[in-house]
């Protein structure tokens, strides 16, 4: 296919791929404002309802590591189409779920199919865009995905207020089907599998099954330990299992030919600092997505629409601040903007810890804006630092590991918030939750000083 032909197809092809891609972040952030309504309908407590978030993010974390290899093995377009079709089916199942257990199963199925969409989307964008327009294509793609995550709580609040929580899942069905039809009609079957039309030589990439199983077991042990902290029984057993499972996971990954997560990457101090930083930041983000709607709707008597507007502070300001932090890091080095942003988000958390339960929704939204600004300002330079620190031939593995850290943070944050609140939503529980997030924020500030301080100079020939 010529570049001119590809250029003409870029519009509908990009729209189809992006429509599928926005489903994953949108269905992650949009659900936050619906949690109180789901608690009421099924009669579950805060700790139980938070599992809809933790299981979703946990399943995405595990599946993301396998989905890239599945795309390489069976074709990116085919795996994308399977992903969006499965997402539509699982969303429909969630919309009609008669019990909380079935809703939970549907959320896990959403996550697994969403992971297939996420990894194949990036490859398809690269394949359908002409080389001279590839930067613009990725810029458009990133803007659409980031914006969907930012406005998710606001859209969720409007839908829940007007039609109930089930509408959040209904709306995903036509979007997913549109993505399937658009990509199925426009994108070549071999898109993303080659650069010039010839088949790739050699064996298909193998999937690190042992690593994925051990990572899943480790993640389950961590979640059980958090949820059962102080209660003994399964929680204590899970806590005792974390260290041996971690050691076994590292041993298998070091021996694997194509590890799901390569522990050798963490020999780089800047990379380790970046991964720990993004893990901490997403602990804060997703814990806030549990704490804030329950505070606004349960303790303050607000509506789902109000909770969505309040959460727009953290996600909206994060999107606004992100470009500025990245540009400044190119001039002044990665460490300073990351440290400044981390201090800003921690200051916002301190204020929330002190006054949130007695504040108005507007005040909470403003303080969340401070947190979001710091999070967005530090996010892009942190990611750039992670990619800067790894040789070019390992950057793909580094990117996958970095995003694994981000999703793990989300799992831990939502699980932590659920464990702190327990069976009921109280002012003391909300305050304790924000207090723990202050400690996480301080840790994020500390690890930011492990990032490089100087400006990275280009060393490529001709650069």
Concise synopsis of the structure shown:
The chain is 78% helix and 0% strand.
Topology:
Elements: H1 3-21, H2 23-29, H3 35-42, H4 46-49, H5 51-74, H6 76-95, H7 100-128, H8 134-163, H9 167-170, H10 172-186, H11 209-227, H12 234-255, H13 269-299, H14 304-332, H15 335-355, H16 361-388, H17 395-421, H18 427-448
Explain what you see.
The protein is mostly helical. The protein has three domains: 1-193, MFS general substrate transporter like domains (Growth Hormone, Chain: A, Up-down Bundle); 208-257; 266-463, Growth Hormone, Chain: A, CATH 1.20.1250. Helix content is 78%, strand content 0%. It has helices at residues 3-21, 23-29, 35-42, 46-49, 51-74, 76-95, 100-128, 134-163, 167-170, 172-186, 209-227, 234-255, 269-299, 304-332, 335-355, 361-388, 395-421, 427-448. The longest helix has 31 residues, at 269-299. The relative contact order is 0.13.
Helix tally?
Answer: 18
Number of domains: 3
First-residue to last-residue Cα separation = 31 Å
Number of strands: 0
What attributes characterize this protein structure?
disordered C terminus; globular; disordered N terminus; 0% strand; mainly alpha; Growth Hormone, Chain: A; 78% helix; 18 helices; single chain; 463 residues
